[in-house]
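Reading is simple: each integer encodes one residue's backbone shape. The lines below illustrate:
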Amino acid sequence: MSQVETNGLRLEVDISAPPQQSSPIPVLMIMGLGMQLTAWPAELVDGLLAQGRVVIRFDNRDIGLSTKRAEWGRPNIWVASVKHAMGLPVRAPYTLDDMAADTVGMLDALGVPKAHLVGVSMGAMIGQLIAARHPDRVASFTSVMSSSGARHLPGPTAAARRAMLSRPANPHDHEALIDHFVSVVKVIGSPGFPTPEPALRKRIAVGVHRSVHPLGVARQMVAIVACGDRSALLSRITAPTTIIHGRSDPLIPVAAAEDLGRKIPGSRVTIIDGMGHDLPPAFIPALLDAMHDTFARGER
């Protein structure tokens, strides 16, 4: 791993290359809210390498080993949520537009002219901005469990909202943090593809021992709210796009995927029964197949 300077920040980047490449266009993977580059399942990364793909993962600003700044402050999530619900503008320390600029700047620093974008949740929201505003940099776009931010869309279930806003019993104890994140995944995760708890705890422990930064999660949450509705931009996306979503997603209900499918020209929508808001091991083969097809469309 190494750090790359972009947009006045330093982002932690990991580049994995297969013994033999099948394409000169790498896969850029953009993670979701508060998630580090280590949150990408090893099975997914290994599967992409087996396809001959170079894989670029990174920590978004304010998370993992990337830049965090005290002057970004402590946002009030409740005030931001109320303003958003009332249709009022929300001020944020930074926005998804800033995070999209970080990502494009990182590609510049790495000397990558074009990439296949794969985004999960907030990461796919960032991907929307990049694909719409920098079409020459995007070979294809795979959007997983994400949304346009349109105000008419249904929001999280009450249980999912409570889980996302809950706090660990002891934020300074690693085991308490792991317990907390396991409980969150059990609420928002895939009922049809449950991850065995030992495997789930092991994966979460990697992130907890690497970096914990609750302020970054709060600031990214407010960045999402402040970004608002991206619907007007989506018609500008020209890259072949696949939208993947779980029918059982309690955090971003499946209506968001159908909405994206109507707004992104030529996009293909795949709805997975039993999938929630996570990337369980049992789902990885289907995701790899969908991504492989999307990459092929982008390279034809």
User: Anything to note?
Assistant: The domain at 2-299 is CATH 3.40.50.1820 (Rossmann fold). Residues 284-299 form the longest helix (16 residues).
